[in-house]
C-alpha cells in the first residue's frame, strides 16, 4: 500500500541523514589561530633541528637575551655528529617539504588540509637515514628544545663552544682552524611553543650552502 511505501521512504531518508550527520561529526577540523600572548611570566619554548656543516666540537649554540645573560645555555640541545648530505629518502622528504612550502606561500588555507592529514599520518620531522653510511660524520645536527624568557634576545650557533664570563659570553673560537669553517646549514625544524603535529613552520626544510 501507499502508506507502507511512504514510511519506507521516510525511514530510508532518516537513516541516510543520520549516517551523513555521523560522518560530519566524525570529521574533525582543526582551526589554527594566532593571538597575542598575554602571559609574561612563563617561558617560551623554542624547538630546533638544525644541521651545520661543521664538526660538533667546533660549534656551539646558545641564547642571549636583552639582559645579556646567557640563558640556560641550551642544555636541552643534543649535538649529534651526522653527515651533511642527506640520504636519497631524506632528499625526497626535503623536496616534498620545500614543494609544500612554496605552495603554502600562495595558498594559506592549504595549511588546514595538511593539518588534517597530519593526524592520520606521521609527523613532519626528517626521517632517519635508511642507509648506514660508513663515512665519518662531517656535520653537526643540533636538535632539541630550550626555554627562554619572553624578552627580546637572539639565538645563535657559531664557531666555538660558548663560555660565560661576567659581561656576557664569548665563543672559544681561537682553536678552530679557518679551513674547517663552513656555515652551510639546513633547518629541518624551527618553531615556538609546544610541538603541534602537522604545522609546517616557515623555515622548515630550508638550506643554505656557503661556497666560500
Ligand atoms: C660546506 O659544506 C657543504 C656541504 O657539505 C659543501 O657543499 C660546501 O662546498 C662546503 N663549503 C666550503 C667552503 O667548503
Automatic annotation (TrEMBL):
Main location group: endoplasmic reticulum
Locations listed in the record: Endoplasmic reticulum membrane; Endoplasmic reticulum-Golgi intermediate compartment membrane; Golgi apparatus membrane
Record domain Endoplasmic reticulum vesicle transporter N-terminal: where: 6-68
Domain named Endoplasmic reticulum vesicle transporter C-terminal: residues: 135-208
Topology versus the membrane: Multi-pass membrane protein
Chain's role: Plays a role in transport between endoplasmic reticulum and Golgi.
Family designation: Belongs to the ERGIC family.
Protein name listed in UniProt: Endoplasmic reticulum-Golgi intermediate compartment protein
Organismal lineage: Eukaryota, Metazoa, Chordata, Craniata, Vertebrata
Amino acid at each position: 500500500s501507499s502508506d507502507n511505501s511512504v514510511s519506507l521512504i521516510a525511514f530510508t531518508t532518516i537513516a541516510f541523514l543520520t549516517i551523513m550527520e555521523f560522518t560530519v561529526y566524525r570529521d574533525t577540523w582543526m582551526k589554527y589561530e594566532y593571538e597575542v600572548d598575554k602571559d609574561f611570566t612563563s617561558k617560551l619554548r623554542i624547538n630546533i633541528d638544525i644541521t651545520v656543516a661543521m664538526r660538533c666540537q667546533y660549534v656551539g649554540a646558545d641564547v642571549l637575551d636583552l639582559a645579556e645573560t646567557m640563558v640556560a645555555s641550551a642544555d636541552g640541545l643534543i649535538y649529534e655528529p651526522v653527515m651533511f648530505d642527506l640520504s636519497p629518502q631524506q632528499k625526497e622528504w626535503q623536496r616534498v617539504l620545500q614543494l609544500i612550502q612554496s605552495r603554502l606561500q600562495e595558498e594559506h588555507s592549504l595549511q588546514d588540509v595538511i593539518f588534517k592529514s597530519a593526524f592520520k599520518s606521521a609527523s613532519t620531522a626528517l626521517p632517519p637515514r635508511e642507509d648506514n653510511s660508513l663515512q665519518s660524520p662531517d656535520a653537526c645536527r643540533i636538535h632539541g628544545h630550550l626555554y627562554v624568557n619572553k624578552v627580546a634576545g637572539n639565538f645563535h650557533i657559531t664557531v666555538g663552544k660558548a663560555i660565560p664570563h661576567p659581561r656576557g659570553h664569548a665563543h672559544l673560537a681561537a682553536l678552530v682552524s679557518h679551513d674547517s669553517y663552513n656555515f652551510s646549514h639546513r633547518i629541518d625544524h624551527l618553531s615556538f611553543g609546544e610541538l603541534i603535529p602537522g604545522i609546517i613552520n616557515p623555515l622548515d626544510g630550508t638550506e643554505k650552502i656557503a661556497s666560500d
